[in-house]
Amino acid sequence: MSLRRSYTIIAPLYDALLETAGGRLRAASLAQLPQQGTQDILISGIGTGLDLPHLPPGHTYTGLDLTAAMLERVKPRIGNLQMNLVQGNSMALPFANECFDHVVLHLILAIVPDGRACLRETARVLKPGGSVLVLDKFLKPGETAPLRRMLNLLSRHLVTRLDVVFEEVLAAVPELKVAGDMPVLAGGWFRSIRLTKAG
Ligand SMILES: C[S@@+](CC[C@H](N)C(=O)[O-])C[C@H]1O[C@@H](n2cnc3c(N)ncnc32)[C@H](O)[C@@H]1O
Fold this sequence. Notes:
Layout: H1 3-30, E1 40-44, E2 60-65, H2 68-74, E3 82-87, E4 100-106, H3 115-125, E5 126-137, H4 146-158, H5 166-171, E6 176-185, E7 190-197
Parallel strand pairs: 1-2, 1-4, 2-3, 4-5
Antiparallel strand pairs: 5-7, 6-7
Helix pairs in contact: 1-2
The structure holds S-adenosylmethionine (SAM).
């Protein structure tokens, strides 16, 4: 099954499963965005828009997702935010080079089949001096995690990869540097990472 098909099935259940659990983590990650100003911000793999209540107003947001059924659920959350929705692929972004000041990658980098392509595309559309906010689950370099690697054989086709090592993904995108990296959940399996692109 493709991720698009499985997220079409999951869409009506997604908020019930994830809305409460992630709120505090989303809020802490998004608090790193400028709280004032009118910058261009991409939310790649926006899902049903659970990040929206935590976004500072004033900026111009673009929300991209592969799955129409997930994007539909963003619409009632937009309220007063300036938000354009685009159906597209985080691994092949339909945007010009260097057109966003910041990119949010919440629960997408370890979900797509090719995290390196996703991060490369993120760096391409990011302006020099811009930042990337990552919130996701990663194995540590050298971590064997046999159960997660076994579950990954199925889960990578349905909802998410479980075998992604962040450091291996980052190594493919040398223009991005780590500005912050905090364990936030499940003994450091989930991390909140801030990357910057040299200005
Ligand atoms: C786990 S959800 C995360 C949604 C949201 N970022 C959040 O934090 O709740 C993963 C999302 O990625 C989307 N997705 C999967 N593959 C994608 C791709 N290649 N490009 C863009 N979105 C994708 C799915 O449709 C789904 O909405």
